[in-house]
Amino acid sequence: MSDASLNTASTQHGDAEFGDYFALLKPRVMTLVVFTAFVGLLAAPVGVHPLVGFAAILFIAVGGGASGALNMWWDADIDRVMKRTRKRPIPAGKVSEDEAFAFGITLAGFAVVMLGLATNLLAAGLLAFTIFFYVVIYSMWLKRWTPQNIVIGGAAGAFPPMIGWAAATGTISIESILMFALIFMWTPPHFWALALFMRSDYDEAGVPMLTVTHGRRATRIHILVYTLLLAGLAIATAFTSVGGPIYLTVAIVLNAAFVIGALRIWRRDEGMAEDDNYAVEKKFFRLSLYYLFAHFVAIALEASLVPFGLGGW
Fold first, then answer.
1. Cα–Cα nearest to 240, from 251, 229, 255, 254
2. Which of 67, 98, 179, 189 has a CA 20 to 30 Å removed from the CA of 293?
3. 260 phi and psi, to 5 degrees?
4. Tens digit of pLDDT for each residue in 122-172?
5. Are residues 208 and 144 in contact, defined by beta-carbon separation less than 8 angstroms?
6. DSSP string, the chain
C-alpha cells in the first residue's frame, strides 16, 4: 500500500473533531427536547430543587442526543443519498458507523441511569422508552415501512414534556398527556409540509413518506385534517391547569394562522406550487417551527406566574 493510500485510509474516519460528535446529537432537535422537557418540569404542580431540575434537563438532553446519534448510525445509508443529510458526520466520512453506535449507546445508558438517580424511576423509564421508540420503533421499523411513519413515530418527540413532568412529580397526569398530545399532533403537518417541497429526497432514498406513497394531493388533505384537529386540541388545552389567558391568546392567534396556512396548502395544486417554488408550503413549515415554541413559551409563562397569583384561571 502506498503512502498516499495510507493517508487516505487514515483520514477517512480519523479526523473527527468535537463538532462532528456534537452534530451526531442532532443539536437542533435536542434544543426542542430540552425546551419542552423544561416546560414540563416548570409546569408541574410541585417545586423542584434547582440542582435536581438542572440535572434532570441535562440527562434528558443527553438521552435525546443519544437517540439522534443512534438514528444517524442506522440511517447512514439513506443519509448518503438525501441532499439535506449528505453532510452529516457519517456520510461525510468524519465518524464511522461503529463509532456513532458506540457513542450513542453509551450516552443512552448513561442518561437513563443518571436521570433515575437524580429524580425517579418513572422519569428514567420514560426516557429509556423514548430512546427505544425513536431508534427501534421509528427509525428501524416505521420510517422505511409505512407512510404513517411520521404519525406514529411522532410520539418519540412528544415524550420530553411528559418526562420533565414525571421528573418533578413522579407521576403521569392529564396535563402531561396534553403536552405530549400537542407535540404528537403537530408533528405530521410539520413534516408533511417539509415533504411537499423535499419529495425528491424521499423518492431517491426509498423512504415511504406520504408524498411518495399517496401523492401530494393526499398529503395536502392530510395536512389540513391534522391541522384542524391540532387547533381544537391546542385551544382546549387553554382551559386546563397548564393553560390560562396568556396561553389562550397565543393559541387562538397561532391556530388561526396555522389553519389559514393549511387551507392555502389544500387549495393549491402542483402547478401552482411549482410556479412559486413551493412558497406557501415553505411559509407554513417556517410557521410550524414558531407554532410549537410559542405554545410552550405560553405554558411556561402561565406556570411562572402562578406563584404570584397571576397565571392560570
1. 251
2. 67
3. -60, -45
4. 999 999 999 999 999 998 988 888 888 888 888 889 999 999 999 999 999
5. yes
6. --HHHHHHHHHHTT---HHHHHHHT-HHHHHHHHHHHHHHHHHSSS---HHHHHHHHHHHHHHHHHHHHHHHHHTHHHHTTSGGGTTSTTTTTSS-HHHHHHHHHHHHHHHHHHHHHHS-HHHHHHHHHHHHIIIIIIIIIGGGT-TTHHHHHTHHHHSHHHHHHHHHHSS--HHHHHHHHHHHHHHHHHHHHHHHHSHHHHHHHT---HHHHTHHHHHHHHHHHHHHHHHHHHHHHTTSTT--HHHHHHHHHHHHHHHHHHHHHHH--HHHHHHTTSHHHHHHHHHHHHHHHHHHHHHHHHHHHGGGT-S--
pTM of the full structure: 0.88
How many Å apart are CA 58 and CA 39, to the nearest integer?
Answer: 14
Cell triple for residue 46?
410541585
Kindly state the cell numbers that stand for 277. 417554488
* Whole-number Å distance between alpha carbons of 226 and 127: 27
- pLDDT value, residue 128: 98
